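Tokens in:
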């Protein structure tokens, strides 16, 4: 049928940023990205950054419009009942060519009370990392607010940060309250709550073209920050060829890792949720009843409406996907 739902692609929303680079355009199929693209928002319902469908008869419609029309058939009935036309997950590809600001995100209760929107829990899957690439996650020892403020005021905050070496395949879960920042030379996939709520703590003394520093949000950050050091900030997992492996399972998203070189049949009858595939490597044909297959390649993302319960994934070569949904 002409109006039957199908896997939906969206136009990437590109973010040109002071710390961005060229890899998303040159290596991940983002041919329309400008220079210094730091982020490609793949599927977004953030205000003023609503994704627009780009394939099939629904092309040109916004994500909100699609949900308004198809409701639970897109979202899953349970998710639609909870969120309405608000799509609850934001997915991105990110290339950091310089240090990002050190920042922290609030939880839902604090963000709703002070800003009227969701908090921001997120995770990172490292797609590639240059030799000696590092990022900041958490503190390198237990501290308290007084020590944090003293180091901030004396210009020695960086000395308290936990610098984590990263390589391809590393996974980091970033709960609300955990300070973090990407360093240069990293490409990653980010899965997060739909929210743009970020408190900047430190921005490396950078100035814009007019000589102004970016706004910091120290007062709010102090109210949400977790000062406790963790021994291990990375997620332990073991990739299994032709199997799905859990990377994250939280109230806001479930993310599974799939590396495969043989056809995989997916049965989603027990999952009342949309599915997002983000292609990390390779090329995969997505077969589903009654229509021509959709093909996704490295750097592509696609939304599988909840009503499509039986999907076949046919890799053209060894391929890696992230499979994202809500439980």
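Residues out:
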């Amino acid at each position: 049928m002409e109006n039957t739902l199908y896997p939906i692609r969206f136009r990437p929303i590109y973010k040109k940023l002071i710390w961005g680079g060229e890899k998303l355009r040159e290596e991940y199929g983002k041919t329309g990205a400008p220079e210094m693209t730091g982020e490609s928002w793949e599927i977004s319902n953030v205000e003023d950054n609503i994704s627009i469908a780009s394939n099939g008869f629904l092309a040109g419609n916004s994500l909100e419009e699609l949900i308004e029309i198809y409701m639970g058939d897109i979202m899953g009935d349970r998710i639609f009942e909870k969120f309405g036309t608000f799509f609850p997950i934001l997915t991105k590809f990110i290339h950091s060519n310089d240090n990002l600001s050190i920042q922290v995100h609030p939880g839902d209760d604090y963000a709703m009370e002070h800003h009227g929107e969701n908090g921001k829990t997120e995770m990172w899957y490292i797609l590639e990392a240059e030799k000696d690439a590092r990022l900041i996650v958490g503190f390198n020892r237990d501290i308290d607010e007084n020590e944090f403020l003293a180091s901030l005021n004396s210009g020695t905050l960086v000395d308290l940060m936990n610098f984590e070496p990263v390589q391809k395949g590393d996974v980091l879960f970033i709960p609300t309250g955990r300070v973090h920042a990407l360093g240069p030379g990293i490409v990653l996939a980010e899965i997060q709550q739909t929210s743009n709520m970020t408190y900047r703590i430190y921005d490396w003394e950078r100035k814009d073209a007019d000589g102004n520093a970016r706004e910091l949000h120290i007062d709010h950050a102090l109210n949400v920050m977790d000062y406790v050091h963790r021994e291990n900030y990375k997620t332990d997992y073991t990739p299994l060829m032709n199997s799905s492996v859990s990377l994250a399972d939280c109230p806001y998203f479930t993310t599974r890792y799939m590396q495969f070189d043989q056809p995989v049949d997916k049965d989603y009858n027990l999952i009342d949720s949309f599915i997002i595939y983000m292609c990390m490597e390779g090329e995969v044909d997505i077969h589903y009843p009654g229509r021509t297959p959709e093909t996704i390649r490295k750097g592509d993302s696609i939304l599988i409406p909840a009503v499509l319960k039986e999907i076949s994934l046919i890799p053209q070569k060894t391929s890696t996907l992230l499979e994202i949904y809500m439980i």
